[in-house]
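Quick one, T. Sequence first:
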Amino acid sequence: MTSNMKLIFIGGIIALMLLLVWLFSGEGGSDGEGRPHVSSNWNKRFQPFDKDPLGLYLFNTLVEAHLYSSKDVHEVISWYELDSLIHSGKKEKTFMFVGNIFGLQDEEMDSIMSSVSRGSELFLSYNGVTSNIMRNFFVKYEEKHEYSESVNVFTDKLKCEILSIYQNDTIACEWNAFGEVETRGDSKSLSSFMEMDNFIEIEIGKGKVLLHTNPAMFYNYQIKRKPAYKYTEYVLSQLAKNQDVLLLELGRLSDNYGKYNTDDQTGEEGKKDDSFLKIIFENPTLLTALLLSVLGLILFVAFRSKRIRPIIEYREKKKDMTLAFAETITSIYFSKRNPYGLLQVQRKNFYATIHRHFFVDLARRDKEDDKDLIILAEKSNKSLEEIKSIVHKLESKEATKINEQDISEMARKQLLFYQEVGIISEAMQERLEEKTKIFRRGLLLPVLLVLVGLFAIILGAYYLVTAVGVGITLWPVGITLVTLGVIRLSKPFMKVDPEVFTYYTSLGIKKIYKREDLIRIEMKESGVVIKFTDNRTLIINYWDLSRFDRNEFDRFIAKLHTLEL
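Structure tokens:
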């Protein structure tokens, strides 16, 4: 993995982690001075201290106001905490639950009922409870329902109209009430609607149980209305003021309760998830710590998974002088237009190649003696006359008679000689000529486009879910960025075949240039300009190529320079 790839990988992981932290952290309440809470989430229901429309923040605030100043409200989320509070200080407590479905294990419910029989109170406002709890209150139990947009709830002195609202629209819903019931203690009706009781009191020992069948009457949006506020005051007036209130959040069951098989003896199925993971996901600090731990683990695996080798001395790679050599020849030719100077460079190059492969130094040979040429002929298995023709041409002293055609012809002779004596094998030559070279763009820009595009799409979806209008504009922006990034990743920068150049633009548009139409190559600091016939120009920017492909492209351009000369 290259350094650029590592940086891109780390940056993508960090961006993803920050996005997850931001999404999981939720929409808080009042976020500091001068920033009022805006209620927009109509999905979360019955959260004890949630200020959204379907939360219970106002209800629990009224509960705290109802109690004496020396009494407190405690949120209980585990059995150990409940058991400790039951047996601490004064024995009498007010146990309270307001929510959709309520369920406890038998031993937990037995402890609460034992405390109630000694003088405590139990208030349950529910849509459903498990059967192991109901049998503590009723010998016979039946429910009735009314389906409408609103109901008029009657008490001894009040008539309160309660509405069902969702996102500022009045909608019909199911209002629950008691049917024919037979309680285990003396009972009385505290409120009703449509001549059906919805709030009753049952005496159990020295204490009492208050059962209410419509928790939706205590939503935040309900209590903001005067009728529901008055009704809530009446309901709380039935509770003792001199007892601590314990919110039985440990008994809150999932809304999916009842869709699966359950054990009626224990009521455990669907019980509120109080696992460590839930605690972590509900706490922004713990969630951030978890995500950072995962990030650290990923980085550890990325950097330590490779085989560890002993430290060895670093040796720099030999610098590839092919491009410098081609540029030198180019500068000689264009500065003086001197074909004879190019012939001298060809001679030096040819003599160096012969010396390296056959250990025959033609540059220091005795020109009156053909001994070195005879040795070269024997080693290369070439005729002495052919070698003499090449050497004599390279050592020509008639500078004025050397032209560009002679230079081109000598280059072809040298290449043919290299192929025939094995310096350049035929298989290698065919591979070099027939192989399609592919140059690709750098990964940094396309990966960045894809990451930013995905972030815009996710952010747009998040805004749409939360009814923020700007989310609809982020979708096309995100899709466009992802598309551009994918095109740059999937399409190469340029393909070079033996006969044509195929160039792909940033939008994936293919442009074809014939190799035989190549006229001139101009080298610049920022890239290369390749000119073709019909005034067509192909501009190659170095920044748009990956590091590896940049080096390969330099070698390719050097070969084009050599062929051009």
